[in-house]
Amino acid sequence: MLEIRRLNQFYGGSHILWDVDMNITAGSCTCLMGRNGMGKTTLLRCIMGLLPSSGEMVYDGQDLGRLAADRRAGLGIGYVPQGREIFSQLTVEENLRIGLSARRNKLRDIPEQIFELFPVLKKMLRRRGGDLSGGQQQQLAIGRALVLEPRLLILDEPTEGIQPNIVHEIGDIILRLNKEANLTVLLVEQKLPFARRVASEFRILDKGRVVASGKIPQLTDELVRQHLTV
Ligand SMILES: Nc1ncnc2c1ncn2[C@@H]1O[C@H](COP(=O)(O)OP(=O)(O)OP(=O)(O)O)[C@@H](O)[C@H]1O
Predict the structure, then answer these.
(1) What's residue 107's pLDDT?
(2) Is residue 81 in contact with ligand 1, taking CB distance under 6 Å?
(3) Tens digit of each residue's pLDDT (9 = 90 or more) over 135-188
(4) DSSP per-residue codes, 120-159
(5) Would the ipTM clear 0.85, i.e. be above it?
(6) Ligand 1 pocket, mutate which of 8, 10, 14, 155 (most atoms under 8 A from CB)
(7) How far apart are CA 89 and CA 164, in angstroms?
(8) Whose CA is nearest to atom 26 of ligand 1?
(9) Phi, psi of 90 (to 5 degrees)
(10) What is the pLDDT at residue 103?
(11) C-beta of 204 in contact with ligand 1 (< 6 A)
(12) Rounded to two decimals, what is the model's pTM?
């Protein structure tokens, strides 16, 4: 579904991503892992077209390289950024409607499926984004990305700063989206038990290079010790 070949990225003079090759297969849930500062967020931002990079990126047979960020979203790639980036002064409904406005085939109403997945958003439609708890904001950020009805959903640390019981709920939602709604998922996640629970595949970045990849049962304690523990 998404093929990345020899992707390189620089921040000014700093070479951050080195010859990254990565295949994301349709229907998989792939966890991108690595210690802090290894380039995970940078790679997601390159995929979304929010940062320039060199190399090849092909999504469903289409070359993403020359497409602006909004065109990539329009192709069905949903993105939930790190820190969620919801609009705190806007209501929950307005936040969701922003997702709606990015759709290629315009819809007037927020799809009911969003409220089935996140009943709390329906109850809080008129509340301001900034008044929601961290977990509710994360649900809103995922809901806003789902309004686009993506086929590939990219999530950057969806459990960061969220209470353990809500972390479990977010895991349930990702599993449902992946297994029942057949959405392909690519997520950055630092919590190992969470990654092992929801993901089917892993990729590890170390200093901007892919150093390991495989199916989740192949994520051995040795790999964890070598590349993930601090
Ligand atoms: N705007 C920027 N300008 C210059 N360097 C940056 C910028 N953003 C990130 N970097 C550097 O790029 C490298 C990769 O950062 P990135 O945020 O992609 O890592 P990460 O693996 O997502 O880490 P984290 O888990 O802490 O979010 C780091 O060394 C970081 O300092």
Answers:
(1) 65
(2) no
(3) 899 999 999 999 888 999 999 999 998 888 889 989 999 999 999 889 999 999
(4) HHHHTTTSBGGGS-HHHHHHHHHHHHHTT--SEEEEE-TT
(5) yes
(6) 14
(7) 27
(8) 36
(9) -90, 155
(10) 66
(11) no
(12) 0.92
The per-residue pLDDT for 104 is 61
Spell out a b/e string for 126-140, using b for 16 or more CB atoms within 10 Å of the CB, else e: eebbeebeebbbbbb
Q: What does the pLDDT read at residue 119? A: 93
41 Cβ closer than 6 Å to some ligand 1 atom: yes
Residue with tokens 């077209």: 49
Instruction: Look at domain 2-86+151-227 and name its CATH class.
Output: alpha beta
Model confidence at 105: pLDDT above 70:
no
For the CA of 38, the nearest atom of ligand 1: 21
C-alpha angle with apex 90: 87 to 91, nearest 5 degrees?
120
39 lines ligand 1 (CB under 6 A): yes
Is residue 30 classed as helix, strand or coil in its secondary structure? strand
**Could you read off the pLDDT of 196-205 as tens digits, one per residue?**
999 999 999 9
**Ligand 1 neighbourhood includes 38 CB (under 6 angstroms):** yes
Query: What percentage of the chain exceeds 70 in pLDDT?
Result: 97
Are 78 and 146 in contact, with CB atoms under 8 Å apart? Answer: yes
Q: Which helix (H) or strand (E) holds 213?
A: strand 209-215
> N- to C-terminal Cα distance for the chain?
33
Which residues are bridge partners to 203 per DSSP? Answer: 32, 213
